[in-house]
Amino acid sequence: MNTQKRQRGRPKSQFRESSAGTLQSLDRALGVLVAVARAGRSNLTDLSMSLGVPTATTHRILTTLQKHGFVTFSEERQDWSIGIEAYRTGASFTNHSSLTEVSRPVMRRLMEKTGETANLAIPDGPEVVFVEQVETKNPIRAFFASGTRTSMHASGTGKAILSSMPEERVRQLLMSAGLTAFTERTLTNPADLFTDLKRTRERGYSFDQEERYSGMSCIGSVIYDEHSEACGGVSISGPSTRFDPLRVPELGATVAEAAAEISRMIGGRAPHSEPWSA
Question: Are 236 and 118 spatial neighbours (Cβ–Cβ below 8 Å)?
């Protein structure tokens, strides 16, 4: 007589060493994190059974994730839920993705109005990272590959972002990174740089006069998020011969308008900050 074989124990694990090119421990950890997020709340036994991972292993993964803030444990309910660090990670992706999407049409109009390449960059410590660009049709033009990094003190966008910060925060960033000289015009003297940042703060746009690359100039303005903090900056860049001093105020106002428009579109607002003492 044929008998039907009963399933016993936990389900077959979805994680196997044979998964080419992956690290099993990380694979398991990410699987546990996703399971917690999908469940909302779950106890150890249910998570272990649903994933096909031994209880002891699941617990070690959860405590490791808890140490880094990706999950949290409720002593009262004896269950696990998603942590604040997981939210921050997801929010970072959402913010940057939406910022890029919202900025693109504004940058295109900025390029068309000024005739120069428009750039979008986000802050990362003492540097800015270029994440989007709309190139001008001029044969001689600026170009920054996506992911390009540059020091804030020698960048139009970077100086605009620095100018939005409290003085003490700026000093901390600059002390940690130093003021590297990239050209003869790089502002490597702290007093000169702070004077420039104060001027940038007052007029609403920065002016990089060949401070990063010889022969190239840039005008930038800061983009604010819903907390009135700098989340990025937009700029135009091109050959210095096209950045006539008499035209700079007009270009600067146009860039500042573009930054303000992007800020509004992502729900941001400029802060009501005190003037610098520098």
Answer: yes
**Torsion 16-17-21-26 (CA) sign:** positive
Q: What is the DSSP letter of 16?
A: -
CB neighbours of residue 96 within 10 Å: 15
Query: 240 and 217 in contact (C-beta within 8 Å)?
Result: yes
The CA distance from 239 to 213, in Å, is 10
Closest of 150, 133, 154 to residue 142, by C-alpha: 133
Query: How many Cβ atoms from other residues are within 10 Å of residue 208's Cβ?
Result: 29
Measuring CA to CA, how many Å separate 161 from each of 120, 238, 262? 12, 20, 15
**pLDDT band with cut points at 50, 70 and 90 for residue 6:** very low
pLDDT at 7 over 50: no
Cβ–Cβ under 8 Å, residues 52 and 8: no
Position 2 pLDDT exceeds 60: no
Give the phi and the psi of residue 160 in degrees, each rounded to 5.
-65, -45
> Could you tell me the pLDDT band of residue 142, with boundaries at 50, 70 and 90?
confident
Q: Which residues 6+ apart lie within 8 Å of 199 measured at CB?
A: none
End-to-end CA gap in the chain: 93
- Lowest mean pLDDT of 68-72, 88-92, 229-233, name the range: 88-92
Contacts of 8 (CB under 8 A, 6+ apart): none
- Range of lowest pLDDT (42-51, 135-144, 164-173, 203-212): 135-144
Distances in Å between the alpha carbon of 253 and those of 120, 243, 259? 17, 14, 10
